[in-house]
Amino acid sequence: MADIPDEPRGERRRLGNWLPRKEAHMARFRVEIAAKAFARAAGTPRTVVVDELAALANGDPVLRMDMTRAIHEAQDAGYVLGYSTIDELMAIIDFLMTYAPPFSEASLIHCPLNAVLDWPMCMPSGHALFRDPALNLQLKRVLNTWRGFLDGPYSREHLNAEPPSGWFCPEASKHIDMSQFICDPEKPYWGFASWNAFFTRQFRPGARPVDQPDDARIIVNACEAAPYNIQLDVKRRDTFWIKSQPYSLQEIFTSAQVELARRFIGGSVYQAFLSAFNYHRWHAPVSGIISKAYAIDGTYYSDADSEGKDPGGLNDSQGYITAVAARAVIVIDCDEPAIGQVGCVFVGMADVSSCVIQALPGQRVARGDALGYFQYGGSTYCLVFEPGAIRNFVPEPPFDDDVPPIKVNTHIATAR
């Protein structure tokens, strides 16, 4: 096993506290998790979905080539992975099927599989590998199995106030103010039935009031998220895979939604990303009737090769992944005619990426009403507006990576 370098090479600008910024912390995690995984694999049969993933990777010659080369390319570049073969990687993935992330003040790993794949996925062979439809379909099954564990009572190991790994310990409280959320410190696990119940915790009533509720032209933030990008005059089809990653409406909404994509040609997109420590539910940015609500299968670990060895993992590929990643689309026919329709696109990034839609076609929603939630994993979202609908956006570029998220239900744009 390679030594962890004292001066880590290739420090990455990882946003949102999903992964540590220091590569040494990432490398140490990979080495430690690999040792535990290999020890477990010696006496424990693999989970069925991981066995199927291994069979796919080893049985398809192109996938086997790309996966093996991506691992070796990362190692040749000097990165410490903790594994060197497909079978060793499968042992680690299998171990992670019963892993609930502990809190860590110094090196928090919210997305463990993303940490394991961090460098292979942005190597030349990795770019091709993680776009493969068959691989992504099986990765979805693997991640859904892990989600099942996180939905259950055995995932609550770290839902306590014991330092240093408990999510309610004093150090963790500096990052998450649990007094804002519905919970009960007097109950075991503070009343949460599972890790995912904690991750999708809900605000107490009144914690996030809707800005200017009597003004129908005010558009509010659909997620607790930091601004990432604003783009005007968006195209129906565009070259989303290049360095600037322009939004491509037909790919965002899919080829089955041609008329929907056409409606937004020449319009604008507001995109923001969610931090690991923050609220992960979605709320209606406008009042109106849900006209469409659908989920789209896509990629989980594909980032834009135009970014090279992407300095921010998936973060610098957020424009690109709106067209390729697993995501949910909810379209609202607004009560305010000046706004028209708004496309709400909730994009999963990396581990699990479960986009759960709650508001279905035909339902009326008011600004601030629940639309759905990200069950686990990194996440970004877009609001897509018709041409001429927006007078001005409140957040203005350039956007700083380290700014706090804008609170959900906060004024972010004004209609004409």
- Main sheet: strands, sense, barrel: 7 strands, antiparallel
- Shape descriptor reads globular
Low-confidence stretches: 1-10
Biggest sheet: strand arrangement: 2-3-11-7-6-5-9
DSSP helix fraction: 25-40%
Number of DSSP E strands: 13
DSSP summary: helix tally: 12
Radius of gyration: 21 Å
First-residue to last-residue Cα separation:
61 Å
Protein name: Phosphatidylserine decarboxylase family protein
Pfam families: PS_Dcarbxylase (PF02666), PSDC (PF12588)
Domain L-tryptophan decarboxylase PsiD-like: 49-175
Keywords: Decarboxylase, Lyase, Plasmid, Pyruvate, Zymogen
3D structure, described in words:
Keywords: Decarboxylase, Lyase, Plasmid, Pyruvate, Zymogen. With 416 residues, the protein is of the alpha+beta class. The protein folds into 2 domains: 1-199, no CATH class; 218-415, Glucose Permease (Domain IIA) (Distorted Sandwich). Helix content is 28%, strand content 17%. The protein has helices spanning 23-41, 48-59, 61-76, 86-96, 112-117, 124-129, 133-150, 170-173, 195-199, 249-253, 258-263, 318-324; strands spanning 218-220, 226-232, 268-273, 281-283, 288-296, 327-334, 341-349, 355-357, 364-365, 370-374, 378-385, 390-393, 411-415. It has a 7-stranded antiparallel sheet, covered by helices on one side. It has a 3-stranded antiparallel sheet with strand order 1-13-12, with no helix packed on it. The longest helix is centred in the N-terminal third of the chain and has 19 residues, at 23-41.
